[in-house]
Amino acid sequence: MFNFLQHNKRDKELEEEIRAHLAIDAQLRVDAGENPAPARESARRDFGNVLQVKEATRTMWGFGAMERFLADLRYGLRLLGRNPGFTAAVVAILALGIGVNAAVFSLVDAVLLKSLPVRAPEELVWFKDPSFSYPTFQGVKERGNGIFSGLFAWDISTVNVEWNQDMQIAPALFVTGEFYSTLGVETVLGRPLNSRDEGLVAVISHDAWERRFQRDPAIIGKTIRVERMQATIVGVTPPGFYGVAPGLSPEITLPLTEQPKLKPQDADLASASRAWLHLMGRLKPGISRELANAGLRVFWPQVMESTIDPSLPPERRARFLGRETELMPGHAGYSAVRNRFTQPLLILGALVGFLLLAACASVANLLLVRASGRRREIAVRFALGASRGRVVRQLVTEGLLLSVLGAAAALLIGHWGGALLADLMATSQSPISVDLTFDWRTLAFTFGMALFTTLLFSIAPAIRVTGVNPGRALKEVSHTGGHGTRRWSLDSGLVIAQVGLAVILLAGAALFARSLQHLVSMDPGFEPDKLLVVAVDGVPGRYRDERLMAFHERIDERLRTIRGVESVSFSWVPPLSNEMGAWTESIAVDGVLQPSTSGVQTYFNVISPGYFATVGQQFLRGRDFGRLDREGAVRTCIITEATASAFFAGQDPIGHRISIGKATSRQNVQIVGVVRDAKYQRLQEAGRRIAYLPYGQSLDFANNYNLVAEVRGSIDTAALAEPVRLALANLDPELIVRTETLVNRLRESLVTERVVSIVSVFLGVAALLLAAVGLYGLVAYSVTRRTSEIGVRIALGATQKGIVWMIVHDSLLLVVSGLAAGLLAAFGLSRFAANLIHGISSTDPAALSLAAAFMLLFALLASLLPARRAARVDPAIALRQES
Amino acid sequence: MAGKERYQNRIELLQGTLDMLILRTLQWGPQHGHGIAQAIRANSGELLQVETGSLYPALHRLEKQAWLASEWGVSEKNQKAKFYKLTAAGRKQLLAEQSKWDLLIKAIAGVMKPAQ
Question: Which terminal residue of chain B, N or C, has fewer Cβ atoms less than 10 Å from its own Cβ?
Fold first, then answer.
């Protein structure tokens, strides 16, 4: 741009110079006695044509590289404006190709790359999982002074908050006092939490301040109720700060030391075996992560040694002491979302990358066709003395222009698509509120993509087209017969590439869609329709033992009176526990811990009588729990088929005893029934072994944990939610109730698979259409060039069928080579997505053939249309064209 | 790249000689466009009338060749004007043109007046 501005300046100077010339001339005339007005007039007349002088002078300046580029640009713009259809098609294809990449990249950027909005984020490190206990945190803090300038522990969970009047579940961050000082985050209002805090104080997020309090400036000092306890608001965090876990957006931050009071089942500050915390620290200046890791390795064993629970049996003791950790770069924070989405995002990234390549191939094809039409123009330019480099530069500039236009449109697609993807991936339990505003990285990525695509799609055609001999090209102009073999080969290569890429994307789409279909149609082992899950919080601590049992009975009676409710049951986790987690233990049969089964975990749930009937899980043998399965009676359990066959191959398990866990305090339980297998946590899991305990015999458990109720309706469950909530509020207004249909839980457990298959189907169809259009263009072009040849063939007696076959045969050769290459690539690549493919092999023959069949069908259509047109050629007309 | 285009003393007599005349005129010190035209006319006994349409392109061309340098100044009548002056390269070029011109004169004279 520098040169361009320079030109403007020179223009002004030239004008001034001429004005000075005129003024001097006029002055001389005045001095010689003329009147000023006629003097000016004759000076101007003597000077001659000012415009012409200027123009002649300007040409002396010559053109710098930038001027030439601008001239190319202007020329390119004119050319594009003259072919609006072509321009629109190319820009649309590029916008699609670059746009889907920008969309996925904006998500990758937000979830995986973006640094936390804190002071010097590159100094932050997080301790590699698994999670840690509070004593471990203290141990590291005591010994890590030499490494860390700050260290904190945190946990994210949900709490019930009464903001003003309404009670709501809100994501909450529990942090130790060093959290804000270590991160270097200040509050926009009030003060951050610190180590001197006592009692329940809270810092709220900027979002919460806006949403819940309409930016009330007098918010500091107000109290809200958190889990029915008074909490004082002391600060508001800056906008854009969501803690250290991108993707999760806590509305409220509370002192970790208060967590045991608020969530007794989650937190225990004294226990060394209760590991629920994440650790993060800031390295001292000058200490590298390698150095810090070396230091940590020195004192880590001491930390573990000093925090071990002395009552642990030796085997678990060794396991506890053997736990290791490592410091990971923490500039982007610690992200559960990241862990959940890394693989799907990488797969989506690969898929959109393939689409971009396909888009490039198809644009290159369009440019080639057009460039062939421009052979004459280019030949004229050569004849007039343009160098080859000069002409290539012109063509590449035009390509760049198209790319930039495409990239600008792509930014819109990217922004909109990124938000859509984030929406699709969010679930009610883990909403993703990633900061999707475009930053320089996304902009740079998008325009970098544009440059890259320009190179890809415009250089090859440019070099090919400029490789013409001007003399021959000029002579060739009116000549339509015969086709250069080179042209055929580059075009064919592009079409093969397009077909191959389309097949890869179609294969991906077919695999993911079939896998999703498998999951959706899978029998989960229970009846999800018309089943409502009711999470009831606020029971532990207020009802115990006999009163608790009685209270559950009252809930049961009350809910049954609602019209449309068929049955009610209680359990610790509902079917598809999902985010509620799992309880696993190893078990021993008849007092013998079988070596073959040790180390294999069995999943446990605590249920009320009637649970199986309510959720629709089939009973196979034995009996259900009853009112008699309570404290004091023989301890009982029910197991699933998979558990039965794992431990009692062939035998009837009923009557056998199993012991749970290794703690000696555990009593043996007797198996009284066998039920069908069911999914425990999510649909994708492989057959897990499950055992169920009666909650009448697990009162110590029920006293401490909230239970969920399952409500089986005879009508639409969504309509039951409100009456259920009302009924429970009537029973005890302090209860906190959330309802969710099991159908929704099912849907949300498949969210990743659904997003990947939606996107891959979209991309597959897009690539298929691009390839079909490309093939159509190629065949149509070759038919036009071969019109006279076809005319001769028809005149010599070729049948229409024969002509159609000849043309289709040629194009099918290309398609089949593309198909083979694509299938081979898909075959090799699909194993990288194996984690996301369920129920079928990652090289499922049905899916791959489906992809191939689709491609073949469209290719056939795309070549049949022009072929049929060719076959209808009138030989008389065709032959006349020849002359 | 345009800057590297070699200056060619075209066969067109006028252009080549105009460049030489300009360089020669500026040998006596900086001058503005109007002054240069005046000086050429006066020194040629009013025979050579320099068109502005040739003068200004020539000035700018010579400046681009770095034989001239320019700066804004004030004329004897206290008017703002752009003054051109010879650069070291311009001086060298003038010498070259001068000797070429002398050679040409000699050659042409030899052809036109063989008797002498």
Answer: C
